[in-house]
Amino acid sequence: MTHLPTSEAAALVSVIIPVHNGERYLQVCLSSVVTQTWRPLDVIVVDDGSTDRSAAIAEGVEGVRIIRQAHAGVAAARNAGIAAARADFIALLDQDDVWLPRKLEAQMELLRASPRLDYVLTRQQRFVEPGHAVPSWIRPDHVDTVLGGFEPSAVLFRRASLARVGPFAPRFVVASDAEWFFRATDAGLRTAFVEEPLLLRRIHDQNNSRFTERRTAEARLIALESIRRKRRQTEISRTS
Q1: Residues 199, 149 contacting (CB under 8 angstroms)
Q2: pTM
Q3: Which fold has domain 8-167+190-209?
Q4: Considering 107, 118, 126, 221, which has the largest number of Cβ atoms within 10 A of its Cβ?
């Protein structure tokens, strides 16, 4: 177990878990949070209009706070959780993903050792849910192998750095995470990777990534908006 510094508040990590009808995987997801080697934790489940037992499962885990809202999508749920967070460090976790026990500890070590870093990612390993075939939208060689990638479940932010970029954009239904990371890059945020694969990403028939046409359309818009931001920045630099 990690030894806390003198100020416990300086070590607090808020974990935001948006949930919509996630009863199938939520218990395992939450177990991977409460067994983290890093303490203290502020765990927030945002129930995004679930009609299943998601809220009841979260209520059964000691120390978990629950926010309930009408179904508004994952971006709005993440924003609600971040607004309610108590910590200076914020982690995101999707309802069907799993952290290995040292995930937060390894990331906090990097952030505390490098004050100039804005957020830290961890490597990941994808696995296919038993009984499911590898879906067509994922490359077979990306299963059961260590990968990088900018994924919400892989990140730990400084709260102040997250605020510099702004909230997740609910107008992007399946790619709001990618849109946020583009804005972060354009804003010059500094990041690093923990080389250990401390995130397990579950692949199944309900992943948002299955909406390939919608994701492609949103990715094009995200890239276009990024180009426009960079052009504006260049024009401002030339005139200043």
Answers
A1: no
A2: 0.88
A3: Spore Coat Polysaccharide Biosynthesis Protein SpsA; Chain A (3.90.550)
A4: 107
